[in-house]
Each structure stands twice: as C-alpha cells, then as structure tokens.
Amino acid sequence: MGEETINRYNREATFTEKYDARIEKFGTKDVMPLWVADMDLPTSPAIQEALSTRIAHPIFGYHHFSDRYFQSIQHWMLRQHKWQIATKEISPINSIVSALNIAVATFSKKGEGVLIQTPIYPPFMAAIKHQHRKILDNTLVLKNGHYEIDFEDFEEKAKEAKLFLFCSPHNPTGRVWKKEELEKMARICKKYDVTIISDEVHADLSYHDNVHIPIAMIKEARDITITLNAPSKTFNVAGIVNAYAITHNESLKRKFLTLFHRYALIQANPLSMAVTIAAYEQSDAWLKALKETFLENLQIINEKKDKISPIKPLFPEATFLLWLDCRELGFDDDTLNKWFITEAKLGLNRGSSFGKAGEGFMRLNFAHPKQEIKEAIALLENAIDFF
Ligand SMILES: Cc1ncc(COP(=O)(O)O)c(C=O)c1O
Questions:
Q1: Residue 164 near residue 197, CB atoms below 8 Å
Q2: Atom of ligand 1 minimally distant from the CA of 238
Q3: Pocket residue to mutate for ligand 1, from 201, 204, 240, most atoms within 8 A of Cβ
C-alpha cells in the first residue's frame, strides 16, 4: 500500500458512523475511534476507478444482477478459497445482518433454540432476542490465549437447536476454524437436523497458515448450510455493497429466500455492482498488500505488549479486530469502558456487548494507518503508566 497507509483521511466530513457517532457512543468526541469494523484505509484503486466510471454515467435507475456479477463471486470463491460453486447457488441479499434476522424468522419459531458461540458479534444475539427465540450459547473456552470449542456442550445445545448462527472466521476472537473443528460441528448439526447459517464475511482476511475453509465444503454441512458473504469487510466498502448468500441445496435456498421475496427485500444497486466486480476481478494484489499492512500493525502492537501489560492482546488468526484481555486491570465492566474513554482516550467496543463471556475484554480495530496504531498504543501505554 506504500504511501497510502501513511495518509490520513478526514472522515469526519463524510457522515461516518465511526466518527459521527462518538458523542452518542462514548459521550465525547475526544477519543481515537477504533471501534466499528470498517477501515480508515482507502479501498482498492480498481474499485475507486470503477466507481468513478459508473458515477460519470449520470443515470442511476433500476438495476439487475448481471451474469458478470455472479461470475465474479464464483471465480473469487474458487481462487481464494478453492470452493467450487455454481452461479445459480448465489443469491444476492441486502446485508448480512438482515439475512441473519431473516434466517432466524424462517428456520425457527417463537421460543425455539438458536445456537451461537459467545463472545459473538452483537447482531447474532439481537437476531435471536428480538424475535423471542431462545439463545443456546456454546460459550467458547479461552485456553492459553486461544479460544476453543467445547464439543460436548455443542452437542448438548445442538439437540435443542433449530439453527446454528456460525461466525467463521470468528468475530471478535479472530479464530479461523480448523478442518477438524468444522467437521465435528458439521457432523453434529447434521445428526440433529440443525440448519447452519455461516457468516463468512471475514473469510478473505486470514493470516499466515490459517486457511479459511467454508463450512459448506465439509461433506456433512454441504446440504444444510447457507453461507453469507460480501466484499464489504475485505475491501472497505460496507456502505455500498450488497451481500450475498451461497446455498448448494436448492430447496434450502428457496425456503431461505421466501421472506426476501415476500417483502421485496432484494434490489440491485448500480454502485454495488461496479464495486463487487472490481473487487473480485481486479483487486488481488491490493488485498495482499493490505494484509501485509495489517500484519505490520499487529507487529507494532506485539512489540509494545510488555508496555501495555496487564492488558493482553489476543492476536487474531483473521480479521482486523484485536481482542484485548483486560481482566487483570480488575475493573468492573462500566469502569473498564470508562477508563478506556477518559484515561486512554480510545473509543473501542466494550467486550460485554459481545455477551457475558466478553466481560473484561475490549475490541480494538487495527485497520488504520500505522501512525495511528502507534499513537493508539502510546495512549494506552500512557494510561497504564498512571494506572
Ligand atoms: C461477523 C460480521 N457479520 C456481519 C457484519 C456486518 O455485515 P453487513 O454490513 O452486511 O450487515 C459484520 C460487521 O462488522 C461482522 O463482523
């Protein structure tokens, strides 16, 4: 990314949640906002160019999803994840979060159980609570700085579950699930007839030898899984793009799409179309450089880890989100959150919003220019000095 990572962009002028919602979220504008999961880094040059070209054409009427759009997704899945899919298995949807809610409405009834693994991206819990289903929490187990699955508990919960809202890679823990873990979960879900909704929006952002495997590639999961994805996280275009679902099983796909059709929820968007194609056809080199930037940012944090002790960063296997174990500070949840705002002057996501298992943790978004990550760590170091 070269010079671009050094540049700072003034996002305050662009109606950006990360900046504009600071007062609402933290009670002050005086925090460096490292919370909501988008990047303070520019999207790929190919996407910028595709958008400029599309905008130069001054007509923005109704659109349809073109063959090229579907093929760009199909080729991306094969190139990036060795996953062979047919274009007819791809269904455009609006956003992943709306799809999670619709999946809960479609595949379960009031009072029935939905399996999740906390700590978890908050909309997973909201989708279940708002629709009066029962949360079945297969809480992840933290062992030596690494989150693992309690499979016995997973099986117990699966017996009662109608569906499993799966996050892979996992937000906020940054886990990339291993093949054996996926196989065990798939086998259990198949055994108890549990539909898997696999949110794989962070799939393209895995590091080192942590290889993301779409769970639908596992034999037992193939016919019971709906995979949700989008270019939104990978290419920093969350404000523009449509997400999509991939479903091998045609009747499962049809059932899933019923409510989308009933309420006319799917609409092609001219900018989204241009972005998706440019992302998936012309941005491979940019993505490689982006991941190097992320690893450099993690390195900056790693080098300072003794200075920010007792806060322990749990380095992720994927995502640009860093889960900080702050339990040794000994604060209750409100005090911890307040300490980050007033003493460290950092606006992070509070761990407890990811479920009870997140209490004592904070989530830091490191998709920022290197200089900002250095400043953020310096702010943390300074606050620790006064602790
Ligand atoms: C796991 C996960 N799913 C979904 C989303 C948001 O997806 P969308 O903007 O398509 O609703 C996020 C954003 O942070 C996320 O981390």
A1: yes
A2: 9
A3: 201
Q: Decide: 127 and 105 in contact? Cβ < 8 Å.
A: no
The per-residue pLDDT for 119 is 98
Task: Specify the 3-state DSSP secondary structure of 246.
Answer: strand
Q: How far apart are the first and last CA of the chain?
A: 37
- The 10s digit of each residue's pLDDT in 141-196 is 999 999 999 999 999 999 999 999 999 999 999 999 999 999 999 999 999 999 99
Cis-peptide into 313, omega within 30 deg:
no
Q: Looking at this protein, which amino acid is placed at residue 240?
A: I
List phi, psi (to 5°) of 174. Answer: 75, 10
Instruction: Give the residues of the chain that fall short of pLDDT 70.
Output: 1-7
Q: What pLDDT was estimated at residue 88?
A: 98
Location of each CATH 3.40.640.10 domain in the chain: 60-282
What local confidence, expressed as pLDDT, does residue 8 receive?
Answer: 74
DSSP E strands, 292-345:
312-314, 321-325
DSSP 1: -
DSSP lists the bridge partners of residue 143 as 146
* 136 Ramachandran zone, left/alpha/beta (phi>0; psi -120 to 50): beta
Distance (Å) from CA 77 to ligand 1 centroid: 19
Q: How far apart are CA 47 and CA 8, in angstroms?
A: 19
Protein residue with least CA distance to atom 1, ligand 1: 171
Model pLDDT, residue 1: 52
145: Cα separation from own chain's centroid:
20
Strands 225-229, 134-137: pairing is unpaired
Atom of ligand 1 nearest to the CA of 37: 14
Fold of 2-44+284-385: Aspartate Aminotransferase, domain 1 (3.90.1150)
CATH fold group of domain 60-282: Aspartate Aminotransferase; domain 2 (3.40.640)
Please tell me if the CB atom of residue 220 comes closer than 6 angstroms to any atom of ligand 1.
no
Instruction: Return the ligand 1 atom nearest residue 319 CA.
Output: 16
